[in-house]
Structures are given as structure tokens and as C-alpha cells.
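Two entries, shown back to back:
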Amino acid sequence: MVLTALFISVIIYLIIIAADLPSLAELQQFNPDSVSKIMSADGKLIKELYIYKRDIVRIGAVPKDLINTLISMEDRDFYNHAGVSIKGIVRAILIDVATLSTRQGASTITQQLARNMYNTIGFKKTILRKIKELLTAIQIEKTFTKAEIMELYLNSVYFGHGAYGVQSAAADYFGKDIGDLSLGECATLIGLLPAPAKYSPLNHPDRALVRRNLVLSVTHDRGYISDQKYAEALEKPLSRKELTEKPGTASYFAEYIRRELEKIDEELGINLYKDGLIIHTTLNMEIQQILEAAFQRGIDHDQAVLNKEYLKDSEKLKFALAQSGFPITADSARKILKSDSLIIPVELRNQFLVQGAAVVLDPGNGHILAMIGGRNEDIYADHFNRSVQAVRQPGSVFKPFIYLTALENHYKPTTQLMNQPIQVCLDAACKDKWNPSNHDGSTGGLTTLRDGLRRSLNLISVRVVQELVTPQQVKQTARDFGISTRLDAVEAIALGSSGVIPLEVTAAYAAIDNNGIYNSPIGITRIEDRYGRVVREFSPESREVRDEAVIYLLRDMMRSVVDAGTGQSIRWKYKFNRPAAGKTGTTNSKADAWFVGFTPQIAMGVWVGMDDPAISLGKKQYGSQAALPIWARAMKGIYEVKEYPPTDWERPAGIVEVEICKDSYEKVSQWCPRDSRIREIFLTDAQPKKICPIHSNPFSRFKD
């Protein structure tokens, strides 16, 4: 009677315990959290997203040596028991009694898996935990095959240093894929299991080596490896991971992608940090590394220029310190600036650290090929991505929208305006006024639109807005090209008074590059789940924003900037000779320096400036000095490694080339001197129709 009651009590107790354990349905749906990976277009890993670092691997990819060493050390009867090893339990009890301890474990691999799968079982060494573990293990054995159990175990077990699963451990400890591990490396990983922190080959290589050799010895004794293979493995030193790529590459792009994913994760029903997603991006790692090298070289030079100016100009230094609000003397600031290992304190970085951003786009599809959102050095890197978050005054980089608006209104590259001082309204009511000047203080007479853009003459740009088009028309042009920031439709728009985002202005220039077809910039091409199934594919929004003919005309004027204007150092100094067009830009205070330009294959925008817009980069830090060198070196480097065909933009219908006289900008007459004859392109319906009135007869050359 007592035995019956005891038996019934045990059954009831087990039923109560079992109620808290996972159901059959839960077991079948088990999916361990795994690492999501952001991948470049050329197959390079950019960043991993995870809570627990775990890469899922199929059992077929796991080396036999790893399975054999695991079975030898953790569960020699794995293939014979039904989740619980009676022999193991008896052996553990005998050893624990003999040693008066509880050090000897009796858990099978299946029981260990039960603990790894369900935290409701717990990890504290108690009888209750053992019973829960045992019951769940039996249920697991009924639910899965031995191969599936082994796969689940290898993907869930902890190996230390934040790595869960054998694939993550192989990458972290040896920099290898699981399939490439040697016998010794397999033994090292299995040796970690009892105490990953104690036997870490990174922190305790001596202990790890002893442990590895023990695993090899036991595996050899079990008959899984031959005498020769065992001897060879013992002779090899402990494997070490070799550092390869520079850490932090494309860190701003990776953060940009993560934030883009967080905008759509609920819609897609995905968890970025648990689902083991593969996020395929547009970034080209080779182009990214070229851009980073050019950016670092340029920003180092710009930083040196600023430091030198601070050391020479006490007033500027005092002003910057006052702006920072940081209690530091001018002498202390000078010591920092003179230091060989320049490290600018966090409190001074807005005023003393030169910052920048750069974006490379494929104009044909909007793909972001490379991105830099700020300083790349570990000590300076932050989460503020200036390529997509900073709103900065564009200066003359905004001018192509002004000239395009004029061309659309049937004005010509040869339309002339006076290069003379003028008054600009800074607000709609014109209560606040300003007298702008050209960057070099020059003035002149009648000047063509082509020369106005080529030489970046502020006075000509302002007159375009005052005399040929309206600020509202210019604003609409910029909107059509994807500029989303606030744009004030006032005359000062001619000088880039309203802020823009580097990525947006680069995408706008890419549309000029792409014959008037705007492709919204994208960084993600598709998302796959852990099984390779496509969750979603992405493509850019594509639309025609302007007629190809008027775009060709503007682009040709922008080529003049590179060939003979403010960007001509691209040709003579940096020796980049491919077809190219672009525009320099500098704000009046020189707190912002730009160069945005493109070739038939690539569009690139570069901004350099201070996070505090009240601080100047330097008295002579124009866009052509501070930003253009980064663009030129990066573009030249890209063309040295990429086999782009030597193509040029094709001239579309609607464009005609006319021989004109540069004295009148009308069609040449038979009496126009040879050195006055030039060729210019026009929209077909806006071409010159008159014959040069200046040289209309044989005696015109003798006129005073």
C-alpha cells in the first residue's frame, strides 16, 4: 500500500514537473537565435547583428573529427541511448561517492541540449533540474533524429567570448569556416565546453593546449583517430586566428543599413538580432576601401591646415574655445594641437575636429557603392552619419539647379548677364538684405551662363534668379531631383543658402549623369532568411525628372568646370582624364567645402566641414582645396582597379552644335575673324538665328 502511494505520488510529481516543460509542438518549432549578416555586393561581411552570436550550420558541413571528439568527451553512447545514459548515471554516482563530490556529470548530449534549448529547465545543479532535463531529453529523442539532435546541439552550445554554436566559434577563434577546421582545432573547441573562460585559447593558451591534447588522447583511445593522425595533431602548435581586414570598414554604411532595416522589420515580421538573416547590400568593398584611403589622406591634410591656423590666429582659437563652452585655456588647447599623437577631447570636437562625408553611387540603378559618414578612426567614430543625417549649406554645389531652370526656360549657355555687384533679399519680404560678391572679389562686364557656372561666379547666379527665373522655380527643380530638406524660395537660394543632405545632392547629380533619370539611392538589394529564402527584394524608385536634351546641355556646362574651371586641378594635378563633370561648393564662412561630380559610370559627392557651422575650415579652404582632392584621388583609384569602358555621354536628339562668334554669340558671318569663331551647343529650338552683327562686312575689323 505504501509503495503504491509512493508510486502514485511520484507519477503526480512528474506530471506537475512535466507541465512546465516544452510541448511536442514547441520542440518541433525550436529555432535558436542566430546572427544576421550584412554582406557587401562582392560577398564580404560588413557587420553582424545579434544578441547571442550564433551562426547556424547544417550537420553535413560539420567535420567528422569535430563530431568524434565531441562524442568521445561528452557522450560516448550517444548513438545507442534514448536520451538518458543509465551507464553514465551509474558511473557518475560511483565517482561522486568515491570522491565525495558532485564534479562528475552524467548528462548526455541530448540532456545538455535540453538545457540549451529551454531556460525553464535551469542550470543550477539540483535533483529537480536533473529530472526536468531527463524528461525533456526523452521527448527530444522522440521528436528528432540523432543527426538533428547533434545539429541542434552544435548550433546552441556556448563556446565563450560571446560565441554560440560551432560556426561562430570557428570564426572567432580561428578565423575559419567550420568545414576548414583541422583535427587539432576541432579538439580545441570541444575542450572548451566544460569551462569556456578557463580554457580559452585567446586568454589562456597554455591551458587550452593541455586541454586540446587531452581531447586528442581520449578520441584516440576511443578509436576515432589513427596513431599517425594523433601523433601529427599533437605535434602542431595551438592554432591562432590571423587578423586580416582592417576592423571598422564601412562602419557608417553598416549603421545606415541597420537603421533602414529597423524601419521595416515589423512590416516584414523579422527580428534583426535573432533570425539569422542575410542582408545583401549594394556596397562594393573594393570601392569602399579606395574611398576610405582617399578620405583619410584628405581629412588629415585638412585637419593640419585647421590646426596651423588655430596656432597662428589667437582670436580664432579663443572664439572656438568660447563656442565649445569647455573650461580649457588657450595654452592647453595649443598643447593638444601641437601633440604628435593628436587626440582631440570629446568636448572640443565640434569646433576642433575636421569632419566629412562621402558617397559613391551607381547612377544607372541608384546603388550606394561606398559611404563614409564621418571620421573613421576608432577614437573619433560615432553614430552620426553625416552622409544621410547632416543638413549642410551647399554653397555653389546648388548652382546646377539654378542654371538648369534657366536652360529649361529657353535661355542659352551664351545668354549674358552683368558680372556686377547686386543686392540680394534674404527673406520673402526683403527686409533682410545682403550684397554678395564673387569668391575672389572680382567683377566684370557681360558674362555668359557657361562662364558663370565654370568660374562659379556668385553675381551671375544671383542675376539668373533675379532676371531669368524665379526662386520658386529653382526650388521646384531641386525638389524634382530628390532634395527633401527645407528650401527657402528667396533670392539667396542662388547661393545655396538652404541646407541639403550629402546623399540627396549626390543622387541629384547622379540624375544629371543619368540623362535626367532619377534613381532613389538604395543600400539593400534583398533580404534572405537563414534558409536562403528571399524575404524581400528591393529596387530603386526610378523616374524621368528632365528631358535628356536639356540635361545634356547642363552636363556639358558642368564639364567646363572640370576641364577649365574651378575643378580643373582634377585634370592637371591629379591626372584624371576620363570624361567628368561636377561642381565645387564653398559657403561664405568656409565651414562647408564640397565637390560633387560624376563620370559616365559613377557619381560621387564629398563634403568636408566642422560639426559646428560657426567655425571656418580655414581662410583658403575652398571646395577645390578641401573636398576636391578626396574626390579626385578616390575617382582615380576606382578607375585604376575597375575596368570601366572608355565611354562618353552620347549626344541626344534636340541638341545642335553651332559655330558662333564669341564677340556677339550669334552665328558666324563670313567676315568673322578665325580667332573669334567657337563652337557651342544649344537646344534645337533655342539656337542662335541671327548672323553676327559685329562682323557684318569686310570693313568691320577696322572699326574702333
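entry 2 starts here
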Amino acid sequence: MHHLRRLAFVITLSTIAISANIAHAQAKKPLAVEDLYLMESVKSPTLFPKEEKLVYERVWIDAKTKQERHALWLVTGKRENRKPLEADEPDGRSPVVSPDGQWIAFLSTRTQAGAAFTKDTRPAPPPYSDAMVDVFLYHVKTEKVRPLNSGRAYGGVFHDGFYGRVAFSPDGTKLAFVADDGKDPRTKEEIENDIEIVRPDQGEGYTGYGVAQVWIVEIESKKITRLTNDDIWYGDPQWSPDGKSLVVVANKTKDRESVRFSINKNFDLYMIDVATKKQTQLTTNPGPDVSPRWSPDGKQIAYLSSPRKGPHRDVFNLAFVMLDGKERKIRIPSDHHIGKVKIGAVSPGFPLPQDCWNSGSVLLVVQFERGINTEWHAVNIYTGAPTGENTKLFVTHDRQRRLLPDPDKYVLAEERFAADGQDVAWKNDDISLEGIFTIPPTALGVKPPYKLIVYPHGGPHSRSAWGPDFTVQLFAAQGYAVFQPNFRGSSGYGKKFLDADRLDLGGGDMRDILTGIDKLVKDGKVDPKRQFVYGTSYGGFMTTWLVGQTHQFRAAVAQNAVTDMNMMYGLSDIQSWTTWELGGLPWEQPERYKKHSPITYANKVKTPTLILHARDDRRCPLPMGKAYHQALLANDVPTQMVIYPNEGHGIRQPRHREDVYRRVLAWFAKYDVK
């Protein structure tokens, strides 16, 4: 277990908030909204192969512009010896070190990245989509930076967590990456008449990008080869150990949909011969086969697999495709979809770590979700069961831990009071449930029973888990207790629990939340008369649903909420969400679509409800927020609606995040009358 703690340290540090150059020590005080601008995070830490050296991505908010910034930092020898990789910290993201340690490949929005779009007629991706980046190379010895190829035969480079990946070949002479071709799909007449034709893209986050293709560049000659050339979206390229092939993920069916946080279509693994560009299909499973990782000997590929095209986030099996011999075989040590799971076997989380194989090709490091905990284990590839053995990845992360900033010294909590989280367990309908209950910092002097903010997660196939959360800490610092329930449908509890709210959205999962609150009230921890609710996405659905079913909350805030199932089907980028959760198309299940829409019960709402919505959200589109707001107005419910421009499903701009926090707290304070 000590290895798990070491790895958890680094994984947490990759997203933990650290203070931004606070000049003088000061007495602790409660966390405040403006502390948002003191936050930093460490992302993509990457070690050099033979040196005690590391490069990472620093992410922080510029206090003057209130814009998020990204830059690369280099650490040599020990964590105190760190500095910006380049003077003035120009934009730099997602560093990758070559096998010989001579090059750092990274992504950047700097000027060169605009070349493909300025020479073509298509506009750059909008602000609410992924930022347009290009690949750059930093030569470690000369400290010079150059673009991957100034000719730009390709277009926008993908840097999301599913399609995008930049990877050096095993010998370090080539670089594989994913990009579109930079071409405008519109005809000359369409451009002249300024019209837009609706064409398949990949939805939320991909607006403005064309089909994702795989490219290879030779580092020295700068020669670029396009490895794929069709209308299929390819992603996550992984080099074979001999450098002769790449394995990629692709969905070659006509049933294509957004994959951002929604991996439930027929993705398969394909091996591409680098010399001939010939593709060989490796898997034929009807559900998603994703996250391929070669074994060190090149004889098998580990990947994640689900046998169905089901919920947008499913329970994955750990699977292996065997490449040793003419006949390829698929092996699944423990199938979590048929109930015959071997004792001690785990259901892995997405994605598999990049360097997950141990050198002996017997142990694989897997991250998995166990309730509110995130655990890392080395598992035996033949049984799927965890082992207590050490692995190369744990050793690697020990090195990272020694070089990265020390969270005990740099966390913002050193200057701010930290709120304590507790796990809470209860039962409903004979189902065992759990969640996280965070109470105000002791130094505030607030005593139970506390006023409560219920903070349901999105999904519904997501979960609340231990880890740094600025929102929860901020609410607690204002004197609220925060309850994050993992109601039925949450991930981390197995397939049966995940499927338990299908065809019953707002039914059992709502009762799970309410009985959890009842438990906290019964235990004397929560004031029964001072309760509030705030949620985003499916959490927003649950917020608008709760106020239509009960009057126990003094005020509510729904952000980017699902309020109407017919609109969700017709306007969202993932129609499969409604058809799976409600068991059919709108005209096949009209009563079910109506029954499970919060707007159906808007006439019963009495709770003052604030509606916050991103203007350009493709996952839960703006009309759902507008329609619900109009329904509340028609029924004389105290309400207000705020729209955030140039924002997608996640409201990311710091000034908008600040506004959200201030409005939520002000709305609750307005109705918190003793």
C-alpha cells in the first residue's frame, strides 16, 4: 500500500492548487473568491530518461488579464532547482521528452500555430473550443525552439484526452501526432454566401476542427508523412517497441458521436504499418476498445474494453490482444459485465497510464475507482488481480515526487484554513450508499447543526471522490457544510450500481440524496431548515428536479442543467445519452421523456432558483436553461438567469468562474434568513 500512496501523491499533485508567489508569510484566513487568482497547478510532469531532471507544465492565472496561462518549467537535480524552460514563459503545454533526452516536444498556441489557418479560409476554433496549438521542439543542448515543420502540411493539432497524443518513436528519430488537414470543408459558394452546413464533427470541445488524422515527422529532416487519409477520426497513437508500427483507436462505423467524456461507441484498435500505411484491425468488439498500450516485448497490447454501446461512461474490462503468432487472440482476465469477476480483480478506470507495463510484461499498473477513493495497483495480467509487487511505474513516480514542488510547503492551505472532509454512509432501498461531507474550518467557530449545500455530481455516471476541490473549500469557508452524495448511477461501484438509475432518472437517485440528508439531520450535523442545492450538468438536472419534487431547500442554483429530455435529445452532441438512459427515441418513449424532464414539474416549484448557463454549451445546450427560466417566471418563482459567452460545457474563463462563485454565494445568502 505504500506504493499506492506514493503514486497518489504525484497524481494529486498534477491537479493540486499551489500558491502563486505569495511574497510574505501571513496569518491564516478563510478561503475567499479572489483566491481563485492565486491558484496554480502542475500538469504533465515528464522525467528525462537517464538524468535526475524533469519538465512540467505550469498553469496559472495572470492577475492583470484574468486569463489562464501555460508555460513549461524545468527541474534539475532537486525540486528547489526549477526555472522556466524559456524566458518570459511563453505558452507551452504537454511536454514529452525524447528517449535520448535531447529533445522536448510540446504544444503551444504561439504565433506559428496560426499558419495553417491564415493560409486557408476556415476560421480558427472559437474560444469555447479547444485552443489551436502546434507542435514545437526544444533542443536541450542549444536551448533553441523550432516549430515541428514551418511548411505546415497539417492543420489543427489535437490535444484532448482521447484523440490527441504526441509521441516519440522508440529510437527518438520520429514523432507521431494527431491533427486535421487544415482545410475548410465549405464550398466556394458557401464561403461567399457566409452560410454554415451542419457536418459531423465530434461535438463539445472539437468545434472548428476537422477529421483527426495521424501524422509522422522525421526530427532531423523535418519530413512529414500523413499516415491516414480518410474521413475516419483516429486517435491515441502508440508506437510498437520496434518502431515499425502504430496502434490507434478509430470508430469506422456510421454511428459516430462526441467522445469527450462519452466513450460508448464502436471504437476498435487498428495497427498501422509505418512503411506501407497498411491498416490491420485488431479488435471487433461491438462496444468501445480504447486506451491501447504495447507490452515491452511487443507481443501483446493491453487496452480497455466494454462489450456494449451503453452509458456515456461505462465499466471497462482490462483486455489484451495477443500478437505472438499468425492468429490474434483476445484475452479478458475478468469480465465485469457478466458477473463472473475473480476475487481481488479490479475494474480499471480510463485511461490506462502511458507507461503502465512493467519491464517483465507480467505486471500492469492500473488506476481504478473504488467508491470515493482512487487507487493504483499493479495487477497480474493473467488474473487481473492486484499484487503487492513494486513496478517500474511506481519507481518513476517516486522520482517525480522528489522533483516536483512539495505540496506540504506550497499548497494554498498553508495560508488559508482548510475544511475537513468526512465520509458518510447510509442506506436507501437496501442499497448501501456513501458520500463526502465537508464541514467548515474549525477556526471559523461554526458549530453544528450546519447550514448545508447539497452538491450533486454530474453524469450521472460520474462520482464525487477525495481530492482538492476549490468549490467545496470555498463554500465551507463561508460557513456551509457541503454534502457530495454518490447516488445510484455513480461510477466506482460496479455495473449493477451504474445501471441502477437507468429508466428512472430522478427516482431512486433523488431518494438516495434525500435519505442521505436525512441521515445528516438525524445525526445532528445539518440544520433541517437551512438547506441549499447547487449542481452542474446532471447535477443541474438533479437541482431542477429536486425543487420540483420537494420544498425543503431555501434556494437553488442550476448550472448548464438538463431540464428537458426532448431538447436534450434534439440539441445535445450526445443523443445516445437520452436514448440509453430513457430506453428509446423521443417518439418511441414520449411519456418517459416527459415524465423525466424537470420542466414538466416547473409549476410545482416554490424554491428561489438561479439559472446559470454557458452560451455555447454543446453538451447541455442553452435553450434548456432559457426554457426552464421562462417556466419559473410564468409561475412567479423568484429567479434570475445569467449567460456566459464563449463558454462550453465547462465554464473555464477565470473571470466567469469568479462571477459564478459570487452569484451562487450571494443567492444563497439572500435566502438564508434565520
